[in-house]
Amino acid sequence: MSAASRARALAKLVALIVVAGALVAGMLLPVVGGSGVVARNSASLLDALPVELTDATPAGNSRVLAADGSLITNFYTNNRTVVTADQIAEVMKQALVAIEDSRFYEHNGLDVQGTLRAAVTNLTAGSVQEGGSTITQQLVKQTLLETADTPEERTAATEQDGVEGLSRKLREARLALALEDTYSKDEILTRYLNIVYFGRGAYGIQAAAQRYFSVNAIDLTLPQAAMLAGLVQSPSNDDPIANPENGQTRRNQVLQRMFDLGYISEAELTEISAQPVQVAEGLSPANGCIDAVIGGFFCAYTQGYLTGVLGLTQEQLDNGGLTIQTTLDTQLQTLADQSVLNTLPMGDPLAAVFTALKPGSGDVMAMAVNRRYGCDDPDCESVVLHTAASKGAGSTYKTFTAAAALEAGIGAGTVITTPGDQYTSRVFRGPSCGGDREQSNGMYCVQNVGDYPDTLDMVDALVRSSNTYFLALEDRLGSVEGPVRMAERMGMTFDQPTQNSADEIIDGNFGSFTLGAEATSPMDLANAYATLAAQGTRCTPTPVLQVLDRNGQPLTGEDGQPLVKDDNCTPESIPPNIANTLATILIGDTSSPVGTGQRAGIPGRGVAGKTGTAQGRDSVAFVGVLPEYAGSVMVFNPKEKQDVGGYGGNMPAAIWRDAFEPYLADKPTSFFPPVDPALMGGGPAPAAPGGNRGNGGNGGRNGGNGGTGWWNGG
């Protein structure tokens, strides 16, 4: 720019400032007076102060934490971590004031003298070296811009030209006066440092300190502070990473201004100015579940819980500065992640889905699967398979039938004889064993897999997982309603589009229910067995312990009460004696020589378990519980039908043990309460058609004295 051009531009600028000053004075005349700009009627000013400016700085990132306090991920629109005044280095405050508003501590929000000086300095230099507006005015502008909800509001907050531009500046001036009358200088400066954009996605001084130097705002040095203060006017042009020469020039301008104002010595100015800019670039913090440090599927489940069950909006998550304390156990999650990968590689067509929670609380502890969450690669998955009902869980459903039978007065010692390893129902219609419906008169027929004794009681039938016994037991009940309602009481839900509803199963009298033909959520399966482990107390699974607001206080709902309530459990949803008796019986599944889940057994621990294999081995499952822990493992192809190539006692049982055995190594566990002797007797039971009637049970297992050796948790 030539000297003549610069002089003409300067003359126009001075004229504009004089006119604007007159307009400001006229606007403020009713409410200000005296030398300088001193408010006389602050109430009038505050009447016009928008709520956006009476609230604190935009809250910034929400943090999602594991149970041990470690970070899982963040949710944010703008990367911002709000800090307090004492968490910002003093030299950072000095650098910003020096370059943006050197008379900050002297004016009352407006500074015509400073604006004129900055205009002359910038025009003479041919570039922006000092800020024109006061820090208070800039805070007004930035706040109104960031809180704008509509395009019109955003335009109004940034209008530069004509009457609209002048109107915006006059409004900002009035609001700046009101802010100065309401808040201390230190609070205004802190709010500004928390809201201003420093480039590279970093909003606020803490995010900027981390992004450019990998330090906290309190630890910023003089050259670092000068560099960041210089970025406020032009973050892209003066980016020290992309444009180190521009960055050095701008930093030195800040240092010169700090020296002129007496903030630093000539020696400091000379020494630092000669040095190139030095950065220690940090990564942007994790954002969303795709970036989760651990437990990506748990994170997605939690996000859905927050927005669905608790009713938060995604905007609240992204901009509310919330702290979400979850139930994730990082040790178990890590072990479960490794366990599923030890069995099936990442991205295998078969998914190994591990889900664990705490009986008696519903706290979800871990959700592992041999997939990565949310990305686009072949080994990725966006559906949370742990909560989706897609495949059957096989014989794990026999426990529901057993519980219904015990409640109906059919004791665990009840003997049923089903000769020939197949049984045709007297009650339920369905496919025949040979495929010829006429031969079986259209009645449902099932077969066992392998050799089974013709005669079993309920205990051995559960441990051995006899199909024929449990269809015959379902016959004895006369309807599938008892097992279905028992499953619901234990925690199963049948409300997904892929499932038959409970009423549909009952109305259709689906005899296959006891064999686990219904699409099953792995989470539901773990939760239903957790009800056994908790002596009949059913809990709704929850991944959230508490949600804190930006001030560290529990977030409240419309009723004024904390959003997270401790009301997700129902004591005695099923009778405790039934729960305890079944849990003790099911220890045999992992410890008895004839148990189908022996691969899940852990020496010294009384693991109650049940295996399951769906029709055609399309899905296999194992669910195991201790009084303190419950976990299910399901293995299946979520995209299509595929023979898994094994049974529930194979991969699922092994995965369960590989995760829980090292986890429990340093943790005490207890044993289940003993069986109720009153539930261990037998009674008349139907024989198979053409077979012998079963004799009455002799109660030989009551009191926990059965001969198979697992009654005391062995």
UniProtKB/TrEMBL annotation:
Give one Pfam hit by family name: Transgly
Please note every region of biased composition (Gly residues). 691-714
| Domain Glycosyl transferase family: residue ranges | 69-258
| UniProt KW keywords | Carboxypeptidase, Cell shape, Cell wall biogenesis/degradation, Glycosyltransferase, Hydrolase, Multifunctional enzyme, Peptidoglycan synthesis, Protease, Transferase
Please list the reactions this protein catalyses.
[GlcNAc-(1->4)-Mur2Ac(oyl-L-Ala-gamma-D-Glu-L-Lys-D-Ala-D-Ala)](n)-di-trans,octa-cis-undecaprenyl diphosphate + beta-D-GlcNAc-(1->4)-Mur2Ac(oyl-L-Ala-gamma-D-Glu-L-Lys-D-Ala-D-Ala)-di-trans,octa-cis-undecaprenyl diphosphate = [GlcNAc-(1->4)-Mur2Ac(oyl-L-Ala-gamma-D-Glu-L-Lys-D-Ala-D-Ala)](n+1)-di-trans,octa-cis-undecaprenyl diphosphate + di-trans,octa-cis-undecaprenyl diphosphate + H(+); Preferential cleavage: (Ac)2-L-Lys-D-Ala-|-D-Ala. Also transpeptidation of peptidyl-alanyl moieties that are N-acyl substituents of D-alanine
**Gene Ontology terms for molecular function:** penicillin binding; peptidoglycan glycosyltransferase activity; serine-type D-Ala-D-Ala carboxypeptidase activity
Keyword Transferase found: yes
Similarity comment: family membership? In the C-terminal section; belongs to the transpeptidase family.
Matches recorded under PANTHER family: BINDING PROTEIN TRANSPEPTIDASE, PUTATIVE-RELATED, PEPTIDOGLYCAN GLYCOSYLTRANSFERASE
Q: In its UniProt entry, what is this protein called?
A: Membrane carboxypeptidase (Penicillin-binding protein)
Species this chain originates from: Geodermatophilus saharensis
